[in-house]
Amino acid sequence: MTLKERDKKHLWHPLTQHKLHPETIAITSAKGCELIDENGTIYIDAIASWYTCMYGHCNDYIINRVSAQMKSLDQVVFSGFTHEPAIKLSEELIKILPKNQNKIFFSDNGSTSVEVGIKMALQYHFNQGNKKDTLIAFEDGFHGDTFGSMSVSGLSVYNGPFEDFFLNVKRIPTPNGFNHNEILELLKTIVENHAVAGFVYEPLVQGAAAMKMHSSQGLNELLQFFKTHGIVTIADEVMTGFGKTGTFFASDQIHTKPDIICLSKALTAGLVPMAITTCTQAIYDVFYSDDISKGFFHGHTYSANPIACSAALAGIELLQSEAMRNNIKRISDSHIKFNDRIKNHPKVKSTRQMGIIYALDLNNEMERYGNLRDQLFDFFMERGVFLRPLGNTIYIQAPYVITDQQLAKVYATIEDALETF
Ligand SMILES: *Cc1c(COP(=O)(O)O)cnc(C)c1O
C-alpha cells in the first residue's frame, strides 16, 4: 500500500472536507526549497510550507544546533525553572525587536500567541480595576483557530458552529491611505459605546486574506488613536515576522510601535512548533505585584522547550547573516522584475509586493476552496511547483534560499497559468 492509501485509514487532516478532497500527497523528504513525494516527484516549495522554513528545509546549520541541544537538555518545566536556550533567545530577540519590547512569554503556536496577547490585554485592564469587554480587529484579518484568535479573525467563513461563543469584537476596515479619517470616526463611536481592551492586527500584510496590503501611514494614525485612548495594541506578526516584509518585523516600518507582538511560524525556522508573545515593560509592570492573583496564570506544558529555543536561536543567527540579507534583497529585486513583466497581462487584475511577499489577483472569480482554484493548484503541482492559491490570488513566499533557477521556474509556471486559465 502507498502512504497515500494508508493515510486514509486513520488520519483526519486540517482544513479539509475529506469527502470532497480525499487525495493527499505523501512527502518523504525535503531539502532547501524542494519537497519530494513518495514517487520521487520534486516540488519547489514556493510558500515555504506556510511561511515557516525560510532558511530552507532540513538546513544543516540549524539541524546541528538542534541535535547538540537534544543531547544536553531536552525538556524541563518552565515554571520555576529556566535554561540557557530560553535566556539566550530572549536576549537575541530583544536585540532585533522594536525597541519598546522588553518581555518574552512562550507558547506553542500562532493561535496561542494571539490568545496570550488577548488575555494579557484583558488582564492589563482588570488588574487596574477596569473591566473591559470589547476588542477591535480588522475586517478579513486572520489570527488563528482557537476561540480568542477565531473571535478576532474576520475571515470566518467556516466558523458558523462557533460564532455564538465568540468574544465581543468590533471590526474596522484596513487603512488604504485615503480612508483613515472615516475609520477614526468609526473608532470614536466604538470607544464611546464600548469598553475597549485591545486592538489586534496583522501589520501591513494580511496573510490569509490573500496577502492583502494596507497603508503604513494610515495604520500609524490608528495606532496613535489607540495609544491616546489607553487601548492595548497587539501586532500579530506570526506571518510577517523574521524578514519577510524586508525588515525584521513589519512593525519596524510603522512609526508607532505595538504594546504586544505575537510571533510563531518562521520563529523556529520550520523545525518545531513554538510561539512567543512579547510585551513592553509597562504591560509587564501591571502584573508584577504582591498580590498573587495579579500574575499571569497562563502556561503550556512545552513552554520554552529548549530544543525549540535552539532552533529559533540558530534561525535568528541565519536571518542576520550577510548571506541571508543578500538573499532577501535578491528575491525582492527579482519579484520587481517579474511584476514588470506580467502586471499588464490581460488575466492579471492587480499585483502587490512587500519584501519577499508577492501576490497577484487573477481576473477570474474563484471561490476560496472552489473547483477552479483546485484546478489551478493541480496545474502548479503537475509542473512541480507548490503554490497554494487563495481563491483567485496566487502568492509567492518562498524560502530565502530559493535559487535563481528555482525562482525562474516558479515565475514561468505562473506565466503558463496566465495563458491557460
Ligand atoms: C498562521 C497564522 C496564525 C495561526 O498560527 P497557527 O500556528 O496556525 O496556530 C495566526 N496569525 C497569523 C497572522 C497567521 O498567519
Q: Quote the distance from N terminus to C terminus.
A: 35 Å
What amount of the residues lies in strands? 15-25%
Could you state the order of secondary-structure elements as H and E? HEEEHHHEHEHEHEEEHEEEHHHEEHEEH
Spatial ordering of strands, largest sheet? 4-12-11-10-7-5-6
Number of strands: 16
What is Rg? Answer: 22 Å
Secondary-structure content class? alpha/beta
Helix content: 25-40%
User: Which molecules other than protein and nucleic acid are bound?
Assistant: pyridoxal-5'-phosphate
**Which segments are poorly predicted (pLDDT under 50) over 5 or more consecutive residues?**
none
Q: Main sheet?
A: 7 strands, mixed
Q: Which outline best applies?
A: globular
Would you write up a description of this structure?
By secondary structure, this protein is an alpha/beta fold. 38% of the residues lie in helices and 17% in strands. It contains 13 helices and 16 strands. Strands 4-12-11-10-7-5-6 form a seven-stranded mixed β-sheet, sandwiched between helices. Helix 7 runs parallel beside helix 8. It is globular. The protein starts with a helix and ends with a helix. The model has no long low-confidence stretch (mean pLDDT 96). The chain binds pyridoxal-5'-phosphate.
